Amino acid sequence: MEIQRNYSLKKYNTFNFDVKAKNFIEINNEEELKLLLSDKDINNMPILMLGQGSNILFRNDFDGLVIKLKNQDISVINEDDIYVYIKVGGGVIWDNFVDFAVSKNYGGVENLSLIPGTVGAAPIQNIGAYGQEVKDTVFSIKGYEISSINEKLFMNSECKFGYRSSIFKHELRNKFIITEVIFRLSKVPILNINYGRIKSELEKLPKNDYSIADVREAVINIRQSKLPDTDKIGNAGSFFKNPEISEIEFIAIQKINPQIPFYNTAPDVYKIPAGWLIEQCGWKGKRFGDAGCYTEQALILCNYGSAQPNEIIKLAALIKKSVYEKFGVAITEEVNII
């Protein structure tokens, strides 16, 4: 366990920006983490927990300590006739966990296939896709308070999960390190295939009795068809959240834009795809040098090679302004800007 100085984070952020961490360390287990946090030399350092860097945009070099968890444990700890409880280390790659669950026919996370990141980062953002959110399967979360090094357990109801948010993103931001998540998955999966293109993708198969493995494959096909490969084009996936508006606001917009797609999330709440709003403003495929919107999905902002962080931030601001001017709808970043 050794702290490295002026360490390049280019391979640890999917925008592929060559920013540096003043201090960087990889941690293999909880004992190493507690030992690190007890070091008086780092008490006053800003600390950043980094997974795969798939939902982050660094403005500049990070003048503090970046910690990367490497614990890779996945184990079934309890089960009954209906549910199975799986303990997963915070350093596990999220899609590796999904693959494990689907291979055992444990349902609840298959629609979240191919989302980049780690298990420890997933609850912070309450990742979601195609009608599933991580909050639907989280049973409990364990970790350590940075200031006191006290271990704490959060049950699902204590996590304050919301749309792309949690207690770890707000009240406990930069104060708590997630080291382990216990998931409760179903041994009798109920398929969720009526969101987005999943159903039409499944209909390509020569059968109609679908499994969660089929759903995973369909989601992977959809994501790969519309998302750029981060090894070739720097990006952080969906840059903006899908805005939620009231019924009155929605009706006013629909009168002018009858084709507007939407999802009801509550009787008086309408969720509008941010990608659609951005595309209607003419941003899809638009570039300013090496900063631009992806050609297949306007919701994704890209570093096509040598863009700088400030260029992506400026592009995001222009997009937000144009969407508000055209629709009167405010969109906010899903990506964490540091």
Number of helix segments? 8
Return the structural class.
alpha+beta
Shape: globular
Distance between the termini: 26 Å
Would you mind describing this structure in some detail?
It is a single chain. The protein has 338 residues and is of the alpha+beta class. The protein folds into three domains: 4-69, Uridine Diphospho-n-acetylenolpyruvylglucosamine Reductase, domain 2 (2-Layer Sandwich); 74-186, Uridine Diphospho-n-acetylenolpyruvylglucosamine Reductase, domain 3, CATH 3.30.465.10; 234-337, UDP-N-acetylenolpyruvoylglucosamine reductase, C-terminal domain (Uridine Diphospho-n-acetylenolpyruvylglucosamine Reductase, domain 1, Alpha-Beta Complex), CATH 3.90.78. Helix content is 23%, strand content 28%. The chain contains eight helices and 20 strands. The chain has helices at 30-37, 94-103, 122-125, 198-202, 212-226, 247-256, 274-280, 309-327, and strands at residues 4-8, 20-27, 47-49, 56-57, 62-69, 74-79, 83-89, 128-129, 132-133, 138-145, 151-155, 176-186, 234-238, 244-246, 263-266, 269-271, 287-288, 291-293, 300-303, 336-337. The strands form six sheets. Strands 6-7-12-10-11 form a five-stranded antiparallel beta sheet, with no helix packed on it. It is globular. The model has no long low-confidence stretch (mean pLDDT 95).
